[in-house]
Write a sequence for this structure.
């Protein structure tokens, strides 16, 4: 996994609550058996005026000019500002794959749906939970200040705004460590192989019918 | 010993190790696999040069992409869908995974066939790369959806890295009135606590109205725990659980059965166990539920009206309601019973079990689908449900009434196959998500129980099934 240290990125505001994974990447694109190439279909139904199908060349499709990520001032955003319960719905990891492929590295919201939240870390994306009032202030500043960028430093767990404010955030220490070092969960777990075998022996004694 | 909740018992019995910071390695007993979220995991395993840890715990089926018409016998037309299903077949063959392929008589939606086969047992941890894995919690199994990276992680290590959840108990007291179903209970719960109300929690559903539900009903309730934001739903073991499991193909037999059943009976929260949050609902007050918006929490009773956003004080919620009404093509204050529908979908892992089809057939018997309804689909959850329904003559009732009787699969729950809503079409659906575009781009979904869906098909608009 790619390591995450510091991002100094343009912010795009997605001002709606409960943005679900069907909106992030609609189901027709889940048919791919790859992990890459989902970026052009991120938020497909909101982003384009026509109906997207897999395998299409998206560069010639009509864009919805009202959609936030299509607005010139937010092009190239790496940080997505969102509202409550971002990423609710299905477990599809295609959602973080699509955000990542599009170029988003950080998502800031008052709350996230859990499966999505966990899936972000596994793909090098940083979801940051901030107090609703702080998020609302960032929404205002993003609208007021064209080219609003945030500097997100994972090691010190701080965000610096263009106005010089330093906003602390916290990340689960294990997740932080994995992200900073780009560590793969499976490799970490398999270091405990002996513990897993031990566990299986103990459990078999109690619930033998589970071990055919 | 201190009193423990059911969740705490399941958590403790699966803990391989726990770090000081609370990160835990949890052992997984059953891994269900579908075609949509597994290809990248199998590929990752291959790239990493890793072998599956315990292949006997894996059970696979193709459900999302499969056609539901008789044409499935000649294969899938859409090359991209076909590749996904073929990839699962190939991975299962290569690794020796037990699979129910598209043409297998036992194929079906993974959350329907797991319990049906007895592959979901009390006291297990059950995972699947699908959020509705919560369904299996009806058996007092710790069951939750995972992402593709975790599918790979479980394949490789039989474990998951996770953290302990908080616990919530939802007590449904009293008795469920006639005509009110498990679906109405869970929609009412979501209406009460909201789609994020369960975030961070394992929810245990308890109380006399839950105890009185069949296993099918309990599965419907747990299925939608995820729509309340909860990672998992649980129901304690009782006679109903044990009776359901006895004789299932993968359930233990002989001495092992007696030993297992005795153990399973310990899988309930202790009398004085403490929960982080408790919610109580009176079943006697629940009425048939219908969603009006684009989130399952946007729900009301059949006698209600579409709410007026201008009466909502919270600005973010108000805007969400406005957007939902505009997407749904509904005006504030419209009586729910006046909303006309174009299509009906009876199916999905929420409501495609035998009991659901019986309830819908009961309403459809001797009646006709309204002329204004373009399509009314009945899609059984599995091959076994389909055969059972046919043995009971339910298929003939549906077909005589003008419903289409299909082959098992996810179908119009999310329309990854050809069963979809066209833009602007309005559907009475027994599925679990009414998100924008869920059943087809621009499609409008109203979530209801099977009986309510069948009644809407006949009337052409929503109608109170209790007076039907
Ligand atoms: S029926 Fe619907 S919710 Fe259930 S597994 Fe299939 S797509 Fe998912």
């Amino acid at each position: 996994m790619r390591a995450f240290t510091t991002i100094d990125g343009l912010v795009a505001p997605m001002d709606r609550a409960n943005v679900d994974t069907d909106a992030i990447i609609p189901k027709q694109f889940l048919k791919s058996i790859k992990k890459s190439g989902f970026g052009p279909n991120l938020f497909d139904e909101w982003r384009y005026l026509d109906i997207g199908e897999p395998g299409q060349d998206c560069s010639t499709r009509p864009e919805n000019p009202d959609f936030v990520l299509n607005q010139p001032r937010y092009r190239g955003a790496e940080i997505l500002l969102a509202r409550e319960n971002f990423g609710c719905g299905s477990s599809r990891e295609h959602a973080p794959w699509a955000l990542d492929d599009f170029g988003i590295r950080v998502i800031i919201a008052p709350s996230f749906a859990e499966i999505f939240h966990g899936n972000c870390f596994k793909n090098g994306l940083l979801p940051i939970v901030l107090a609703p009032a702080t998020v609302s202030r960032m929404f205002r500043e993003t609208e007021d200040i064209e080219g609003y960028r945030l500097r997100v430093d994972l090691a010190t767990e701080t965000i610096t705004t263009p106005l010089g404010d330093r906003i602390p955030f916290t990340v689960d220490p294990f997740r932080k460590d994995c992200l900073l070092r780009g560590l793969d969960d499976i490799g970490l777990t398999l270091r405990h192989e002996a513990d897993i075998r031990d566990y299986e022996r103990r459990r078999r004694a109690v619930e033998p019918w589970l071990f055919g | 010993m201190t009193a423990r909740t059911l969740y705490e018992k399941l958590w403790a019995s699966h803990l391989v190790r726990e770090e000081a910071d609370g990160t835990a390695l949890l052992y997984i007993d059953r891994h269900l696999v579908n075609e949509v979220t597994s290809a990248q995991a199998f590929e990752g395993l291959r790239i990493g040069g890793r072998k599956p840890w315990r292949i006997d715990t894996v059970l696979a089926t193709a459900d999302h992409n499969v056609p539901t018409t008789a044409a499935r016998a000649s294969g899938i037309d859409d090359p991209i869908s076909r590749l996904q299903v073929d990839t699962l077949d190939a991975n299962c063959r290569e690794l020796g995974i037990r699979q129910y392929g598209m043409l297998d008589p036992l194929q079906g939606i993974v959350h329907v066939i797991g319990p049906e086969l007895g592959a979901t047992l009390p006291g297990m941890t059950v995972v699947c790369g699908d959020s509705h894995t919560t369904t299996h919690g009806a058996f007092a199994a710790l069951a939750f959806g995972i992402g593709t990276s975790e599918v790979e992680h479980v394949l490789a290590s039989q474990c998951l890295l996770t953290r302990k959840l908080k616990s919530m108990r939802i007590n449904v007291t009293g008795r469920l009135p006639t005509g009110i179903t498990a679906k109405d209970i869970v929609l009412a719960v979501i209406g009460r606590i909201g789609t994020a109300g369960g975030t961070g929690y394992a929810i245990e559903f308890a109380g006399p109205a839950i105890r009185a539900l069949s296993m099918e009903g309990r599965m419907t309730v747990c299925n939608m725990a995820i729509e309340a934001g909860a990672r998992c739903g649980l129901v304690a073991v009782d006679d109903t659980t044990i009776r359901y499991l006895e004789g299932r193909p993968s359930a233990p037999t002989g001495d092992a059965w007696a030993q297992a059943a005795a153990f399973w009976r310990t899988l309930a929260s202790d009398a004085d166990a403490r929960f982080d949050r408790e919610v109580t609902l009176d079943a006697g007050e629940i009425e048939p539920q219908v969603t009006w918006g684009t989130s399952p929490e946007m729900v009301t009773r059949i006698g209600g009206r579409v709410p007026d956003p201008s009466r909502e004080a919270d600005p973010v919620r108000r805007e969400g309601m406005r957007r939902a009404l505009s997407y749904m093509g509904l005006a504030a204050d419209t009586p729910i019973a006046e909303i006309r529908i174009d299509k009906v979908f009876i199916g999905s892992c929420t409501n495609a079990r035998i009991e659901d089809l019986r309830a819908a057939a009961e309403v459809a018997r001797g009646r006709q689908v309204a002329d204004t309804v373009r399509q009314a689909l009945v899609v059984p959850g599995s091959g076994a449900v389909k055969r059972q329904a046919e043995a009971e003559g339910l298929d003939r009732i549906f077909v005589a009434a003008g419903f289409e009787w299909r082959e098992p699969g996810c179908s119009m729950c999310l329309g990854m196959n050809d069963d979809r809503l066209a833009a602007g079409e309005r559907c009475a659906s027994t599925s679990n998500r009414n998100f924008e575009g869920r059943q087809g781009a621009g499609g409008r979904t109203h979530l209801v129980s099977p009986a309510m869906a069948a009644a809407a098909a006949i009337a052409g608009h929503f109608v109170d099934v209790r007076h039907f």
In short: Chain A touches chain B through 58 residues (CB under 8 Å).
